[in-house]
Amino acid sequence: MLAGIALCVATTIIVKSGKWRYAWVTGIPLVWLLIVTSVAAWQKLFSPELRIGFLVHAQDLSDKLASGVLSAEQAAKAPQLIFNDYLDAGLTALFIAVSWILAFETLRVCRAIVAKRPYPPSSESAHIPGRLAEDWVRD
């Protein structure tokens, strides 16, 4: 998610700076990242494999707890594990939703910039070279 945020911000900055022809440099990795993480999130949420899917694992533990096939020690830990599975599923869904919302917002802003429509103003300041660079150039 952090990489997706960084790529969305970088793509938007590139387009806002008038260099939209270079947006592919960050756009292609962004699309790839969204596809890969979305597929992984989908698998973690809805995989029928017990060792992969959060929801199927929680349901399996619930069924075993209800039928009484778990040992006393396992039965004591099962409610916490079930809660953790549902929490993990909820957070996974939230994070992937936030990633897609951010990607669509980046696309919306970039399209507005390219089409010369109103868009949120930039808050980036112009580059100011530091003294270190000036000293290095003189030497």
Look at the helices and sheets and give the structural class: mainly alpha
What distance separates the N and C termini? 42 Å
Model regions low in confidence, pLDDT < 50 over at least 5 residues: none
User: Biggest sheet: strands, sense, closure?
Assistant: none
Approximate helicity band: over 70%
Total DSSP helices: 5
Q: Which term fits the overall shape?
A: elongated
Strand content: under 5%
**Mean of all residue-level pLDDT scores:** 91
Give the SSE order as H and E letters.
HHHHH
Number of domains: 1
Count of strand segments: 0
Q: Which value, in Å, is the CA radius of gyration?
A: 23 Å
Architecture overview:
The chain has 139 residues and is an all-alpha fold. The protein has one domain (2-118). Helices cover 74% and strands 0% of the residues. It has helices at 2-16, 24-46, 54-67, 72-114, 131-138. The chain is elongated and about 70 Å long. The model has no long low-confidence stretch (mean pLDDT 91).
Draw up the topology in text.
Blueprint: H1 2-16, H2 24-46, H3 54-67, H4 72-114, H5 131-138
List the main descriptive attributes of the protein structure presented here.
139 residues, mainly alpha, 0% strand
